[in-house]
Amino acid sequence: MSEIAAVITGPSGQSPARQAAARAAKREERVAWQLAAPAIMLILLLVLLPTLAVFVFSLTNYELGYDDFQFIGFENYAELFGDRTFLISLKNTTLYTAIVAPLSVLIGLGVALLIESETRGRAFFRTAYFLPVASLLVAMATVFQYLLHPTIGPVNAILSMLGIAGPNWLGSSSTVLISLAIIGVWQSVGFNMVLFLAGLTAIPRELYAAAQVDGAKSSWERFRLVTWPMLGPTTLFVTTISIINAVKVFETVKTLTEGGPNKSSEVLLWTIYQEGFVYLRVGYASAMTVIFLAVLIVLMILQYRVVDRKVHYA
Amino acid sequence: MSAFSLKNISKSYGPSRILDDITIEAGEGEFIALVGPSGCGKSTLLRIAAGLDHGDDGSVSMGGRDITAEHPADRNVAMVFQSYALYPHLTAAQNIAVPLTMRNLSALERMPFVGRLIPGRAERQVAIRQQVATTAASLRIDHLLDRKPGHMSGGQRQRVALARALVRQPGVFLMDEPLSNLDANLRVHTRAEIVELHRRAGVPTLYVTHDQAEALSMADRVAVMMGGKLLQIDEPSRIYDDPRHIEVAQFIGSPRINVLDAVTSENGAVVLGGNVLVEGVAGPVGTPVQIAIRPERIKLRPAGGGGIPAIVSRLEFLGSEVIVFTRIDGSDGSFTMKAAPQDVAHVAAGMPVTLEVDPGACLVFGKDGLRVPLRTPIKQMAHV
Description:
The structure holds two protein chains of two kinds.
Chain A: H1 2-9, H2 16-57, H3 75-80, H4 84-117, H5 122-134, H6 137-147, H7 154-161, H8 176-201, H9 205-213, H10 219-230, H11 232-247, H12 251-257, H13 268-278, H14 282-311
Chain B: E1 4-13, E2 16-26, E3 31-35, H1 42-50, E4 57-62, E5 65-66, H2 72-75, E6 77-80, H3 92-104, H4 121-138, H5 154-166, E7 172-176, H6 184-201, E8 205-209, H7 212-218, E9 221-226, E10 229-234, H8 236-241, H9 246-251, E11 258-263, E12 270-272, E13 275-278, E14 288-293, E15 298-302, E16 308-317, E17 322-328, E18 334-339, E19 352-357, E20 363-365, E21 382-383
Parallel strand pairs in B: 3-8, 3-9, 6-7, 7-8
Antiparallel strand pairs in B: 1-2, 1-4, 4-5, 9-10, 11-14, 12-13, 13-21, 14-20, 15-19, 16-17, 16-19, 17-18
Helix pairs in contact in B: 3-4, 3-5
Pfam families (chain B): ABC_tran (PF00005), TOBE_2 (PF08402)
InterPro entries (chain B): AAA+_ATPase, ABC_transporter-like_ATP-bd, ABC_transporter-like_CS, ABC_transpr_MalK/UgpC-like, Mo/tungstate-bd_C_term_dom, NA-bd_OB-fold, P-loop_NTPase, Transp-assoc_OB_typ2
Protein name (chain B): Glycerol-3-phosphate ABC transporter ATP-binding protein
């Protein structure tokens, strides 16, 4: 009797079915690793390694062109927080983001609501608002340079017709950041609008019918009761993307102001670019990049920790 | 005066007329089921009743007041949707409270922070909470009040949707296929519950469904709609036994009613397989008609007796009854009938049988689909 039992359960003491299942599971695991390997390799090579390299560089005094460099610990970071240019750049980037992100989210939402509520010309308006996203900002910057030109620009021409002396939009330190912010809003509204439109079409029509029957008479009440809460996940995503894009402002600064006048449009990416590619101080620029990344990551974590739980209801 | 009425409602989208002069008047506390195949316009009619849609013609009135031009928010109607349409970001309690907060609190009082400063708001909120609690208790969902719809089963959501409709004591209940997202068991159970809730609330109810069994079992009166037309509105038993239109006869009842094309002979008689099915059909000899007979009014007899000779083609065993499908000898007509299992224990497919039609079971319809009156009701099926 015990011999028969030994044959059935096999040498390892497990039933043949169990053994087959274990073998199949192992085989499946191996295949899974094989299939995932290319993606893992690419993430390592293209994303994680470069990030790590930037961090390592930031601990050195490496300068492009020199063969030799030393590890200097956190000296670069210490220098950063005493660097007036970097602090101005941090302040300007924050200010720029504080203007561009909320405005482009709110205007994007407004435009999406307007387009959604009217069937006529929907395709036209969608395309028109999306054009700035598709167009090349560097090319469009020349148009803005003309528009905002203090003497020959049409903006100031119109202002002077109304009896207002227009400022030197891009040339004066008091208005340059606002002018860049206006261009930033102009550029990102269309993208936000498209995301909001997608979010709006996902809201079930019956909810609006229910809201009307329940007594939400004005469109504002229906917006508060249905649209705004239902758009929660979209709004979170749009806000995140808008902040990231605003913090990354570079093209307009590079083409229109080069950080000036008098460092009043000095922004993070511009400062990094100057240090890394003009002064070739790779170590120092890397330290800035790490700070830049850290700021973005902290923002994202905060946002998702605080808001995410409030916008997903399932 | 009717408690709620839709008068002469018509509506067209472009060239297609989706509602054609429909009048439905619901009495105090009356439950009316609107039934018809999908696309017959019943849901549009309900939306017009709610004010979510507008007819091209006709009027809606509630308690003698014309509300045709009123906004849904002002009509005091309650609606239950097929998808339940609960607000996913609000808890069950908040969902149920929405109609009350929208009506009893001003826009200022509903504001997040400012609202608290307004005198009288706290008392009104307590009153709302009490009403929500009472309604929830009557539907036995008190334990769900803090949950959001995403964390509830279909049946629970359904109850919250019903509670939201009940809490406001509306002038009329409108229900748009509220049971069609539930599984079969729960559906039959909830049917009885809705009827009970309706009886207690005593509010006129329009209930849209495509399920004829639901309509027959729940409603005081059933309105059958087809292609935008109201074909008949009547008590369930009359809809079933005395349909005014061939399409009503065909839509109501399961299995489907048997329909035969025939022409009248002498005395307005319709003869099938040597049997006079019915006599006294108005009109000249040779009038084309359609004869309809309910499956349970045909009896299966051994072959060779006096009746319509037929051959059994298929049997469907349903537990308490058996559906027998037969082909009529010498014609391409077929008859379906219902029988008790013990009566057909010996019957198998391919077996020749005789069919006997109950006297008076034949409903005669003209070419236009309308019921044709009989001059002399038949007493006994006669062999000729």
